[in-house]
Amino acid sequence: MNVQDLHQIVCSDCRGRLAWKGQQSQGHLSEGALTCERCNMRWPVTDGLPRLYREGQVRGTDRLMRVIYDGLPSLHDPMTFLLTPVLQATTEARLREGYLHRLELRALRPRPDGQPLRLLEIGIGSGANLPLIERELPPGLDIELWGMDLSQGMLAECRKRISKKGHRGVRLLMGDAHTLPFADHSFDRVFEIGGVGGYHNPRRALEEMARVARPDTPIVVVDEQLDPTRPHSLATRAAFRLLTFYTRDAHCPRELLPPEATGVLAEQITRFYYCLTFRTRDERSLTAVG
What we know:
The protein has 290 residues and is α/β, with parallel strands linked by helices.
């Protein structure tokens, strides 16, 4: 992350401004800490990766899933590629195409204020969505793609992908989806693929997604749900139960959306996965109506 990017992130505790104190390498953060100018909370930066979360707040399923992802980061992508056709009778590529268009990336246009367009992927993992996003973006746009994850192992894999494939404009940090280290209404697209069902408080995570998204911005959430409209064999149900071992109620959390959610669309994109899309309204319009 560049030093110039610091004004785009805030303290996870109080959303105060962060000041950098530490080593730099060609304008990039290296080793040191970010200190909140409001509450004085100190957030460490190691090997250029800010850690903007409290370890004590990582609990339950959050901690369990991090252990799993940290333990097998290099196997995640190959396993997804190989097992998706076996379990769901479709390919990983078709699965991703099922939600990609809901981000409406081709509709993005330069901002009137001249600021870069900002995209946020929560739970970026190994960065498997990066090439798809770059393919869909209109040429010539000034784009910042922010990727956040709680797994150091998966972020290491993402860094390898970025270095190997030359993805530009990607900023990575460690953070907790329940307390996003970003200001209100600061992103033009927000999405989370394959993680919300494992959060200890998915309602809170959805509220945070809505908070950091600009009004009328598509917010896309994808995770496991066994298609309720189709019959399933015992083997299919057993495979789904194995995949969703972390919960007894893997489903689309439409009922947990914040009150200001609008344009809600819940779709079943494969046998095992849903896609939930929603937006938030402009607070000024809500005030006028009230």
